[in-house]
């Protein structure tokens, strides 16, 4: 299951600890919420990490789907009636997939820097669409007044109004997401995806339609990105076009590179460290950009393959 | 270089060196122009099953271009390509391999960070299928691993099975390249200078390999190693500056004055 | 006669794997030297260690009686070494003409033996392809360009790694001719190639590598004398 | 006693940083000046940089509310952030005081007992300008702003009073936010040749707009009117280009009242630069807190009493005295100002004790 | 739209395009030709503008301020390349994204610490402070014409350097295969340092000459960054001519869409880029 000992170590430490976290924090609303946000971001970053690190499809428009996840819910759900979480999860995933399919067909015609820019372009268009719109709250964003219910056959698993419950939902989602990607990468599909990333020309010559594989991956990653955005919108019941901005995509990319591209668990690591530093410095000084920027620079120089790479070298040395 | 250009019609039917076999691949009036440059002009050739068809010619004659056309990497400017009688010039690049047309590249083209076995597994999976299966573990398919291992064995790379492809020597990478193509279980093999950069022993190995392969496959071989070409070819085509010069048996081509003039030169390599 | 290049007990590693185990040889002024060996024996590694593209763990390289150790590659090349790499090293965004122009440089004695016109005269095929990008050339054309580009730097020592790979027999002959001319003009050459028959005639001195060790070293007569032993090392 | 916890959620980096700085300075100045009114309670500041990123607003607000248990939360500048904040803070224990963001919704449909505003609603500074324009004899006006909530609401407010008095808006130009390439629009205005132009811009965009307008030679030909932000905190950068611009706002630098003189002097000596409207609004947020504490004798544990006290207070602000409407919006005078010699000088009171209509508020 | 108005708008578009080209020119060099993803390019533009403001205020002369600022920027470029960028050449391209985002943070913080957050303005230098009346309504400032002229000069200079000189060939070759260039006896490291510094200096120069036309504000760099990337990508990586054409296209399309299609004008340059890339997936003039 694990590619190396560092990964194993991380997963075995992280998830049990995360499970205990709300208890350790005495269910403090803010901390639990903050951690839940980090978990949500981790899902988002992980889906990007898969795309960039494992498929070689660098995008600066992943926030398109993140924001879409939130706005889709706003568009689909009736304003004041309670709705079912699982049902709407399905809706959001399904519609996001369809959108990703269309977007994918367009953007995958290009590659490299051109793909970065065309994904950016589409995300920006969407950003301006919501930002200029009157129906969707424009630049100021929109409130979501309903919290979905999570009943399955009358059994309510999570009460989304309760931060701790919401936290566990996010944790479960992140775990499933990681598991899913690991399975995906170990699968026969994953083999071809590796091949596509490393040498698309060769892979075509071997008889694979590279576009189809890329498209499949793009749809999968985008749908999960949308799922993260959906959770994010639900957390505080608020959507804003800035979810779709290129800064959101950019920050996610930074987290995933910082964590160690293509390692998946690095996405969690990167998000955790980035958000942790941000939080720490922001409470330390209003000029938090200075220590934050400097530290990022130092980390790039020091870690060849991101935090995950560093962790791996530590674990290997120990051995 | 050569001013002698023959149209296919002028050619006497090639003396058949062995009994007539099926035509697997065929080109009709195939052209590829790069701007004003006629990299390949009006080429009509037939490639037979279980035959090795050598293609030689001076540098820039259009040999690689021909292979690129045959495997769908380039779209022809004009003309037709027929595979088992069906026109395939309009199908998409990846479908060529699905039709059993396998391609080795002139410049080594492998998956450098994967192991040799994995390189071949990727190829073999095309045959075995399940590539869109996101739940089946990639290591669980015995048949597939076997096919990949066999391909490695055929080219004599079994001892490098678990070596990372970028870390084996250039010559070994060339061998791996062929192994990958074999792993797709093709019926037509297009090879572009497979012996380039290989040592004698390895070349010898590949020659033996091709000898045995041509029992089952239609092989098109572009190669500058004359010893190999002469030893292997059932039929030999000479291209010069995008033009078809001659297609005939090895013996006749070797003695053809025009070929000597344009390509082989006289006598020994060092005068 | 001075030693132009001296290589002393080079040990080179790729990460953990030890590839060169103390390779030593020398090239005299004006000599053509062949470096032979089967695939993966360390020929390219030796060349790269000489040029400083790879850093050997230990060993010395002296060129024109000066130590090259520790110098960056470009400074070594500035002492008039030219290199035709395995795989040709084309620039995908430069035209043929630019490949030649960018490399142009007189040697340290400020002599220009090879210039644009002479290179084109040597490889007329390139003349027709001047505006093509480097990677748009056929394999053989690329090889000619790589050699032409190296010659434009007017080297004292020309290092060729499988320079005739992929060339048609006629052109191959031409290249060998060129190497002879170069040699006649006093330029030394270090040639990696597999064609022992030709090397025997062109080169004065021969080195055979087996698994990163020099197994044979001697002039053409010695080579002839030990032909069968050498051939067994080469797998002929 | 325990210190009073004052959370500050303002932008300290990015485009709006200057506004955040000024607001915070004003707030602190007010609370230090009036330390005597706090009945011995210290103030503990908790400052967070919003980076003007709305999507982070709920989290930051929650940090001040749930983690730090702040009594007052001052913020923000950006309307989108205000929305995100109020999602978390509405009807909660902490008192939210908005020292700038003018979004109508915050004291309109989304108004809440614990949400106050010491600045303005977007309607207030612009609405009086309609009458000013009519009085000046302008019939046809082009309006222009960035295409975002605050800008559009400002233009609507102007239009409301201007068209009610018989004026005509010949063209409305909405520029994508935060674009500052104004030249094509200004050329277009020149071609339309209206009697006057009314704009809403602020900060760097205001500087750029005024410079472009002047550079193309329109400033002597078509009078430029604006909501006062056009020339607030920007005059130095705008230089001569701003001379003669007419604006309406709830403040002007040279207002002649004791509070303003003292405020401007203290501000300049404390922070080494002249005060602007953003500083005043922060300052008034401070005054509001100080006064409420004073009224309650330093005990703010009873939030209903606190809210009542705040709602009832009259703030002796540098902008002149003002009170709060039911929707917790300031009821204030709006001044007509003109830029003369690089200063916003008051010409007259454009609207006295103007109250925001607070459409949609059920308080 | 009558013909004079059309011509005015065309002029606006061209002028904006030229300015965009100037800002993007450094990026063309560093990103387009050398292939370094420098997201801090916008920060350099900002640094140029702030430096110009600072030195205009201390020296009183725009000319002197411009020269000093450009030199400082050049040195800054050398410093950044020598200490930071140089360590990343042999690594994943995306590491450059991370590094230069770190730089953006640092520059923004420094700007705020050194110069505060208020919008600042630089006066147009007296010797260029005039206007040419075009109609009774509109006049055209001389300074803007001067800047347009400068943009054209820089464009031509860059085009000739990159495409016609040996230096240009070496730079392009370096992007394709660094090791090989070194094997030809060229000190590729020093070459790259110089080119990177030149790119930084160009960004700063754009900031310097823009300062009198725009407001010098925090975050001004980030706004232009994306437009610059759009320009370079529309033109095709590595092509100076492409960047020039791309900049003009963006300028003109943006200008006319602002007036004629206000509903979508915010998206227009992205639509333009998407359309160009769909028709030519590698930009207009990519090699
Ligand atoms: N993409 C391209 N654009 C322009 N010209 C090209 C392109 N690819 C190949 N050519 C030209 O087409 C001609 C034929 O090239 P091709 O690669 O087919 O030659 P070849 O016969 O394989 O030669 P070699 O034996 O040297 O490999 C050459 O002159 C080459 O320069
Ligand atoms: N980048 C690398 N990393 C690890 N090992 C390498 C690397 N490059 C080469 N090797 C190993 O070093 C040995 C020598 O390689 P080298 O390329 O020098 O051989 P060579 O004699 O030039 O062979 P050929 O004739 O095939 O070019 C080989 O066994 C190869 O596996
Ligand atoms: Mg070829
Ligand atoms: Mg080699």
From TrEMBL, chain A:
Lineage: Bacteria, Pseudomonadati, Pseudomonadota, Gammaproteobacteria, Oceanospirillales
Membrane topology listed for this record: Multi-pass membrane protein
Superkingdom per UniProt: Bacteria
PANTHER family recorded: ABC TRANSPORTER ATP-BINDING PROTEIN, HIGH-AFFINITY BRANCHED-CHAIN AMINO ACID TRANSPORT SYSTEM PERMEASE
Source organism of this protein record: Marinobacterium rhizophilum
CDD domains the record matches: TM_PBP1_LivM_like (cd06581)
Locations listed in the record: Cell inner membrane
Chain coiled-coil ranges: none
Transmembrane spans: 35-52, 57-76, 88-108, 113-130, 165-184, 215-233, 253-277, 289-311
Alphabetized UniProt keyword annotations: Cell membrane, Membrane, Transmembrane, Transmembrane helix
Descriptive protein name: Branched-chain amino acid ABC transporter permease
TrEMBL record, chain B:
Superkingdom of this protein's organism: Bacteria
Record carries keyword ATP-binding: yes
PROSITE patterns linked to this entry: ABC_TRANSPORTER_2
Claim: Hydrolase is one of the keywords in the record: no
Domain ABC transporter: 25-266
SMART domains: AAA
Keywords of the record: ATP-binding, Nucleotide-binding, Transport
GO molecular function list: ATP binding
Pfam families: ABC_tran
InterPro entries associated with the record: AAA+_ATPase (IPR003593), ABC_AA/LPS_Transport (IPR051120), ABC_transporter-like_ATP-bd (IPR003439), P-loop_NTPase (IPR027417)
Record-linked PANTHER family: ABC TRANSPORTER ATP-BINDING PROTEIN (PTHR45772:SF3), CONSERVED COMPONENT OF ABC TRANSPORTER FOR NATURAL AMINO ACIDS-RELATED (PTHR45772)
Name of the featured protein: ABC transporter ATP-binding protein
UniProtKB/TrEMBL annotation, chain C:
Pfam assignment, any one: ABC_tran
Domain ABC transporter: 5-236
SMART domains with a match to the protein in the record: AAA (SM00382)
InterPro entries in the cross-refs: AAA+_ATPase, ABC_transporter-like_ATP-bd, ABC_transporter-like_CS, BCAA_Transport_ATP-bd_LivF, P-loop_NTPase
Keywords per UniProt: Amino-acid transport, ATP-binding, Nucleotide-binding, Transport
GO function term, MF aspect, one: ATP binding
Origin superkingdom: Bacteria
UniProt entry tagged with the keyword Transferase: no
PANTHER family: ABC TRANSPORTER ATP-BINDING PROTEIN (PTHR43820:SF2), HIGH-AFFINITY BRANCHED-CHAIN AMINO ACID TRANSPORT ATP-BINDING PROTEIN LIVF (PTHR43820)
Family of the protein in this entry: Belongs to the ABC transporter superfamily.
Protein name: ABC transporter ATP-binding protein
Organism (species): Marinobacterium rhizophilum
UniProtKB/TrEMBL annotation, chain E:
TM ranges: 16-40, 52-76, 97-115, 142-162, 191-212, 224-252, 259-279
Pfam family, one: BPD_transp_2
Subcellular location: Cell inner membrane
Superkingdom assignment: Bacteria
InterPro entries: ABC_transp_permease, BCAA_transport_permease
Topological relation to the membrane, as annotated: Multi-pass membrane protein
Keywords annotated in UniProt: Amino-acid transport, Cell membrane, Membrane, Transmembrane, Transmembrane helix, Transport
Protein family: Belongs to the binding-protein-dependent transport system permease family. LivHM subfamily.
Protein name: Branched-chain amino acid ABC transporter permease
Source organism of this protein record: Marinobacterium rhizophilum
